[in-house]
Each structure stands twice: as C-alpha cells, then as structure tokens.
C-alpha cells in the first residue's frame, strides 16, 4: 500500500521575511481567497502544483524552499 | 467566517425554507382531502410550483446577500482605513473577498458527491415504495424530498470541508 505523504510548508516564515506580508496580500498576489492561504498554511489543504509554483514565485524562491513533504508512518 | 461559508449557509436556509413550506402545504392539502394520494397530476403541479418558487427565491436571496455583503465590506473597509470616497480600493477588497478558487471547486465537487448519494438512495427508495403498492404520490414525494435533502446535505458537507480542510487525492 502506498504510504501517506504529508505536504508541509514554510509560508508563514516567508510571509514574515517578506515584510510581514498579510495572508490577504499573498492571496491577491496568487489569485486565490485568503481562506485558501489560511488552509494551506495550517496544512488543511494541499495546493495544486500550479498554485504551489505561484506561491513560490510570489516570494521569489524555488518551490522546494516553500513546500516540502514528510512520509507518514516511517 | 469566509464568503463561501456565508453563501452556503444562505443557500441551506433557503433550501430548508422551501422544503418546510412544501411539507406544510402538501400535508395540509392531503389532510383536507383536496388532493388524493393517487392524483399524480396534482402532486406534480404542486412540486413544479415549489421548484419554481425555490429557484426564484434562491436567486433573489443570493442577490440580496451579495448586496448586503458588499455594503458590510465597504463599511468595514471605510472604518479600517478611515477614508471616504476611495471606491476603487473598496471594490478591489470586495472582489478579493468574493474570489472563487481551486479549493472552492474541489470542495464543491466533493460535496456534490454527497448530494448524488442521497438522491440515489431516494430514487431507489421511491422505486421500492411501488413494489409495496404505495400510491404514486409517495414515489413523487420521496423523490422530491430526497433531492431537496441531498441539496441541503451538500451545503452542510461544504461547511464541514471548509472547517475541517480538504486534501487532494
């Protein structure tokens, strides 16, 4: 059986280093609702690859710096 | 509470209102003997009228809801910025808060599955009632109620997914 993968992110840290960018500002930059950014930050929603790239692009970094994964049960 | 959650709650209340109104109206008509249980034409007529009322009411309530929400956001924005007359900024805030994105679409799809399951169960139940020689009105009513209940549960599922979160795959 395939192991479960947990997507983690550093959006909160990147927002802090981006002059304390608000969730709303990030949401507007990437074209989603604040609710979606909130859910991603809290690990309640795994974004599509496209949105993940857009978020990384908003911070001017590579996708791997913002998003990572953990294999559950290892 | 997000815009999507508020919109869903408004839809649930509208749907519930129509379902309860239909229930009371149909029960009264049946109890008073105006409509017989085997008068399928009369039942179909009542249901069509209530479907029509439901559609119109849903549209009107959604329009009123959007107007009220826009006013609320505008007032909040003016109070926050302390400025008057910056309409473009307020319009930008309103459209930013009302945006529908990929998470909303995924939640909508997952919730719709709940609606289909309930409607499917209702359809099978409606057919079973005919095997046990219930009048045709029971078949129609079971169908109508299961579709309405499916729609209500779809809304509740949406709120649940917004609160609990949703994972891809």
What percentage of the residues of chain A does DSSP assign to strands (E)? 5-15%
Q: Ranges of chain A with pLDDT <50 over ≥5 residues?
A: none
Overall mean pLDDT of chain B stands at 88
CATH class label of chain A:
Mainly Alpha
In short:
By secondary structure, chain A is of the alpha+beta class.
How are the SSEs ordered, and which strands pair?
The complex is a heterodimer of chains A (74) and B (169).
Chain A (H helix, E strand, L loop, with lengths): L4 E5 L1 H7 L5 H8 L3 H8 L7 H11 L3 H4 E5 L3
Antiparallel strand pairs in A: 1-2
Chain B lengths: L2 H29 L8 H42 L5 H11 L4 H30 L4 H29 L5
Helix pairs in contact in B: 1-2, 1-5, 2-3, 2-5, 4-5
InterPro entries (chain A): Cro/C1-type_HTH (IPR001387), Lambda_DNA-bd_dom_sf (IPR010982)
GO molecular function, one term (chain A): DNA binding
Protein name (chain A): Helix-turn-helix transcriptional regulator
Report on the structure:
Helices cover 51% and strands 14% of the residues of chain A. With 74 residues, chain A is α+β, with helices and mostly antiparallel strands. Chain A has a single domain (5-71), classed as lambda repressor-like DNA-binding domains (434 Repressor (Amino-terminal Domain)). In chain A, strands 1-2 form a two-stranded antiparallel ribbon. In chain A, helix 2 crosses helix 3 (34-41). The longest helix of chain A has 11 residues, at 49-59. Chain B is 83% helix and 0% strand. Chain B is elongated. By secondary structure, chain B is mainly alpha-helical. In chain B, helix 2 runs parallel beside helix 5. Chain B has one domain. Chain B has five helices and no strands. The longest helix of chain B has 42 residues, at 40-81. The interface between A and B is medium-sized, with 18 and 18 residues.
């Amino acid at each position: 059986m395939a192991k479960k993968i947990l997507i983690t992110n550093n959006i909160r840290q990147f927002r802090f280093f981006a002059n304390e960018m608000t969730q709303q500002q990030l949401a507007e930059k990437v074209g989603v609702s604040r609710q979606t950014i909130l859910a991603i930050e809290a690990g309640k929603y795994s974004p599509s690859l496209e949105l993940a790239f857009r978020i990384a692009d908003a911070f001017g970094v590579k996708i791997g710096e913002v998003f990572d994964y953990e294999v559950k049960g290892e | 509470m997000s815009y999507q959650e508020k919109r869903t709650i408004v839809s649930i209340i509208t749907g519930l209102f129509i379902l309860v109104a239909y229930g009371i109206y149909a029960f009264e008509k049946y109890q008073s003997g105006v409509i017989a249980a085997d008068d399928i034409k009369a039942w179909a007529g009542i249901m069509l009228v209530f479907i029509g009322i439901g559609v119109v009411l849903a549209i009107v309530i959604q329009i009123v809801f959007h107007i009220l929400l826009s006013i609320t956001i505008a007032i909040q924005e003016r109070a926050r910025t302390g400025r008057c007359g910056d309409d473009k900024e307020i319009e930008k805030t309103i459209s930013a808060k009302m945006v529908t994105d990929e998470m909303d679409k995924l939640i909508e799809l997952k919730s719709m599955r709940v609606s289909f399951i309930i409607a499917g169960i209702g359809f099978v139940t409606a057919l079973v009632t005919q095997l046990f020689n219930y009048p045709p009105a029971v078949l129609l009513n079971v169908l109508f109620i299961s579709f309405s209940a499916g729609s209500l549960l779809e809304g509740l599922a949406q709120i649940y997914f917004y609160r609990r979160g949703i994972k891809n795959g």
